[in-house]
């Protein structure tokens, strides 16, 4: 069980949305994390590598900054089934880049631009994610 | 300058993920477990982020250009093709297996859970493979 946190989750969502808006205002780009992360790898097709590196370093430092400012520990429960996590990582990395977006690029940025393409992508990955959790927890019973 | 601004925006995004609870795979997997231990919090994350970005983008995209770039780079691809659907479907399966999408996986790098270090390198491998395959498709169709 995890606690239902509607207020904290809405506030966190607003911060995510604010970051996306400010990135558009500054760089003129979508805050799609899969696209930003994937372009840290070669080939480098534009001059935005340093910007992307800065964004990712900020992202990684986020929990440390939160813990330092709030004085509370960041709760995170990650599976220690390493083959499962390796497979999950491969699928997330491949799928999000092959489909041109993840929860942030298609989900947050695409939906807020009223993109039909992003809506279809979001409904698709939500559907397979729900189906996967159902299969793992209720069919396989893991 | 752009590096520092992007670092600050990445930090804001990462703090948003932590505050919202989305950086915790247990919370994500419970959101995806409708018939089990359902935690609806993530709907509030998406709601807060999409409403903020929807309003903010309307203000920002009314400007002639972004602050640090010559023009806005808003996605122009509107096609709903097999590449979009296959990519999104594969991404969703990985998301449902590990509870990480790319943003939360990157914030987790500073948190020390062993599963994260199986997930993230494989995520980058998957991203690289998808970019290679996409480049090959473009070359083949040219």
TrEMBL record, chain A:
Task: Provide a GO CC annotation, any one.
Answer: plasma membrane
Locate the transmembrane regions by residue number.
Answer: 6-26, 47-69, 81-98, 119-140
Major localization listed first in the record, in broad terms:
membrane
**Keyword hit for ATP-binding:** no
User: Is Cell membrane there in the keyword field?
Assistant: yes
Write the record's keywords in alphabetical order, separated by commas.
Answer: Cell inner membrane, Cell membrane, Membrane, Transmembrane, Transmembrane helix, Transport
Where is this protein localized, as stated in its record? Answer: Cell inner membrane
List the membrane topology term(s).
Multi-pass membrane protein
Cite the InterPro entries for this sequence. Sulf_transp_TsuA/YedE
The text of the family note is: Belongs to the TsuA/YedE (TC 9.B.102) family.
Protein's UniProt name: Sulphur transport domain-containing protein
**Organism from which the protein derives:** Aminobacter aganoensis
UniProtKB/TrEMBL annotation, chain B:
What InterPro entries does the annotation carry? DUF6691
Name the residues that span the membrane.
41-61, 82-100, 106-130
Supply the alphabetized keyword list.
Answer: Membrane, Transmembrane, Transmembrane helix
Can you say what this protein is called? YeeE/YedE family protein
